Amino acid sequence: MSKKAQLFLALLIVFCNPSSLYADNLMDAGNLIEVCSVDPSDDAQQHLLWFCHGFFQAIHDQQTLEGNVCTPAYAVREDLVELYLREAAILIDGDQELSTEMAIVVMARILKTTYPCG
Q: Residue ranges of the domains in the chain?
């Protein structure tokens, strides 16, 4: 098969099914609970907690910039992690399909409910 034919075939596959490229890169709500529930005293797992803190800070900042969330000054990243672990577990317990929803969507929902503006 020629290089042009290989390139065309590769592009055809990508553009006919683009979601397959990103499927493994999306963090779903259930997986995020697992990632953020690691033992903080386990040094080998510490990077997962750093990921959680960064993930939640980014969602918080984005929601705040959009005017969707008004977090009190005393709230810190650890509070966001604990909030997600608690509230996402309750939401998923009530609707198992939420475990496969994108974590950013679930966290935004939790933040908007917990820290509404106005």
A: 24-114
Assess whether pLDDT exceeds 70 at residue 63.
yes
Could you tell me if 95 and 104 are in contact, meaning their C-beta atoms sit under 8 angstroms apart?
A: no
pTM of this structure: 0.74
The pLDDT value recorded for residue 45 is 87
DSSP per-residue letters across 28-83: BHHHHHHHHTS-TT-GGGHHHHHHHHHHHHHHHHHHHHTTS----TT--HHHHHHH
Q: What's the maximum distance between 2 C-alpha atoms anywhere in the chain?
A: 63
Judge contact between 32 and 52, C-beta under 8 A.
Answer: yes
What is the pLDDT confidence band of residue 4, given thresholds at 50, 70 and 90?
low
Does residue 29 contact residue 59 with C-beta atoms inside 8 Å?
A: no
Q: Identify which has the larger pLDDT, 81 or 8.
A: 81
State the sign of the Cα–Cα–Cα–Cα dihedral 38, 41, 42, 45: positive
